[in-house]
Amino acid sequence: MTTIRPGARGDDVRDVQTRLAALGYPIDPEEHGVYGNATEGAVREFQQRRQLLVDGLVGEDTWQELVEAGRTLGDRVLYLRYPFYRGDDVRALQARLNLLGFDSGREDGIFGERADLAVRDFQRNVGLVPDGIVGPVTLDALLRLRPVGPGPGRAMVREAEVMSRMSATLDGSRIAVDAGHGPGDPGGVGPTGLSEADATPMMAAALVEELSRRGAEPFLVRAEAAGSSAAERARAANDRGAEILVSLHLNSHDDAKAEGASCFYYGRERYVSRPGQRLAELIQEELTSRLGLKDGRAHPKSLPLLRETHMPAVHVEPCYITNPGEEALIRQDSFRREVARALADAIERFFSPAGSSAPAGDASETAGAISGSGPAPGEQFEHRPQNDTEHDRASSA
Ligand SMILES: [Zn+2]
Which of 44, 79, 313, 22 lies closest to 180 in space, CA to CA? Predict the structure, then answer.
């Protein structure tokens, strides 16, 4: 293109002025169609704001930037194509995805492979067809999700119910069951020496048995994983296409009297997995009402396994291993079976279509949608504490 410079006049100048005005750099009406001082001043201000070379001329870069700055999310359908879509709409999309916990990479305004993966990840997890196309339905789902913060909690719970459009039943559902501890990773230890590494595999086995009996297809994460780290277990659950994950632990506290059940789902500063929250709350309800355990409630937490798995995932601590009474209970086969039944009841309720409604959207984008699952924490790996005890203390705060 020919560089537009002071003194120029005509349609090109008018185009530049119209774009500048739309971006909040109004031009003196007397200068319309003429590249005068006011226009040059506006161009310089725009260049400065957008971190371009400030020369007061409209060359290729400045023109491109003017075009990109004029893109508003929703103006056009975005998807991965070559050359990449560029613009402030893409930047807004990236920021939105990142804010919600889906890793779309740098907010550079370029719709590349990373953004494509993040969009598909998002779609998959709100039950849309993961086609990578940001049209009205996907955009609506994106904008409807409110990042967690000091804002209204109830509204988000309602959104969670809309989102958790569970069309599946327990029958045939793939459920990842994780014994939170194993060889080389004892976890908390009770007064008579029972460790989480002793107890959680037994709890996991009981849950697998109960879920199998009800027609689900549970699998033990540790048996599938390449190693025992949270990242390796998360990968195993992801690779197997688990619809939900339940990681079993026991709580610990210096005070031997501390007792009861707690549950954790993925959440961080401005984001929570709402389906994860829903599942965690159902589990709390079942554990407390069915077993009479004290309610330590469900909490958001950015634990590595919760963060790196792509399905609604919960970290359950039905009891305190440090409480002598609860440690004794956990040793009982009948109690572990009862815990498994409570968890299975909660999972069954989670999968039940009753009480949840389909998200608004046109049939073409929702047809064939997979069963609902949690907004995936799409971020990079977070360093995992060596001793894996942070979660065990989390609910004692
Ligand atoms: Zn643990």
Answer: 313
pLDDT of res. 271 = 61
pLDDT of residue 56: 94
Of 51-55, 93-97, 288-292, 375-379, the one with minimum mean pLDDT is 375-379
Within 64-221, strands assigned E span 174-179, 217-220
Query: Does 24 or 374 have the greater pLDDT score?
Result: 24
Q: What is the Cα–Cα distance from 3 to 183, expressed in whole angstroms? A: 69
Distance 180 CA to ligand 1 centre (A): 6
What is the reported pLDDT for 237? 93
Q: Which domains can be identified in the chain, with CATH numbers?
A: 11-69 (1.10.101.10), 88-163 (1.10.101.10), 168-371 (3.40.630.40)
CB 160 within 8 A of CB 272: no
Taking the C-alpha atoms of residue 95 and residue 100, their distance in angstroms, rounded to an integer, is 9
pLDDT for residue 345 is more than 50: yes
For residue 386, CA distances in Å to 95, 304, 383, 390 come to: 32, 12, 9, 10
All residues with CB under 5 Å from ion ligand 1: 180, 187, 196, 249, 392
* pTM of the model as a whole: 0.54
Q: Where are the beta strands (DSSP E) in the chain?
A: 174-179, 217-220, 244-248, 261-268, 271-272, 295-301, 313-317
Average pLDDT of the chain to the nearest whole number: 82
Residue type, position 355, single letter: G
Place of tokens 């997979």: 370
* 258 Cα–ligand 1 center, Å: 16
Please tell me the distance between residue 392's alpha carbon and the centre of ligand 1 in angstroms. Answer: 6
Residue 395's pLDDT is what?
A: 41
Average pLDDT over residues 281-285: 97
Q: How far apart are CA 42 and CA 89, in angstroms?
A: 22
